[in-house]
Design a protein that fits this description.
alpha/beta; 8-stranded parallel beta barrel; 11 helices; 15% strand; globular
Length: 333
Amino acid sequence: MSQPTQTFPHVRPRRLRRTSAIRRLVAETTLHPADFVLPVFIKEGIAEPQPISSMPGVVQHTRDSLRKAAVEAASAGVGGMIVFGVPAAKDGRGSAADDPDGISQQALADLRAEVGDDLVLMADLCLCEYTDHGHCGIVTADGYVANDDTLARYASIAVAQARAGAHMVAPSGMMDGQVGVIRTALDEAGYAETGICAYSVKYASGFYGPFREAAEGAPKFGDRGSHQQDIRNATEALREAELDIAEGADMVMVKPALAYLDIIRRIADVAPVPVAAYQVSGEFAMAEAAAANGWLDRERIIVETLTAIRRAGASVIFTYWAVEAARLIFVTT
């Protein structure tokens, strides 16, 4: 009795997954240390780095420890660093934000002297860390963030940050017209070469909680829904990015990253400038907490999440794992 003829698949995609070397050879998405920007916090008036309880391994730096962190990042091949300042004194207009002797300006000058052009030095340009009410701008008597009064403050802060040594300023307040006002202010002050990385698509997200501990910038009342983007909207994100690019943004950002991979993809498909994504504090904290409980393979999750963000279309990734990830991505998978 004849045996039935056994058939085999002619097309075998598994051939390209058979060994680590083959997988590496044909990988569609790759990460490089230069893709990463390390967010750092500098706090005025502390003698030692202060651990952030909700973000294991992340600290509020002293000026000295921040310089060392910059050297470490540059040595690892990390592309950039973004500075968030925490001043000792706060007021309603965030006076410390553009004070030439303010902690952010001192830190930027320190970093420029320490690493020069080896890292792209970015300065977060907002007011929430500097105001006593914790909002991103000038607040009216009825508690509303006044758009145009805030723009005047942003312009002054941008010039102070450029003068201190920032290669790029990164306005994160989501005020209408902020990029155009900042670009004009920088140009008129003689800083035409200073770039703008615009937080063009910053959602009113629940993933920012640990950051508010780190930057000490939680709002004392209300929320930021009047200016940060509604989590239910996507078309609006395209409009925001288009407006910022038209006003002179050199780079646009989506924040947070993992919950908004679809937004990253849509903007990357049409934007004529680099697209950045910020892997925010809540994303970092969730993975760290799960790994600490033995629920996840920590190093694998670091690489997997960053790869997902890159695959979605981000060419620049802001991540608290920047230095560690720079070392991990060279491990054979």
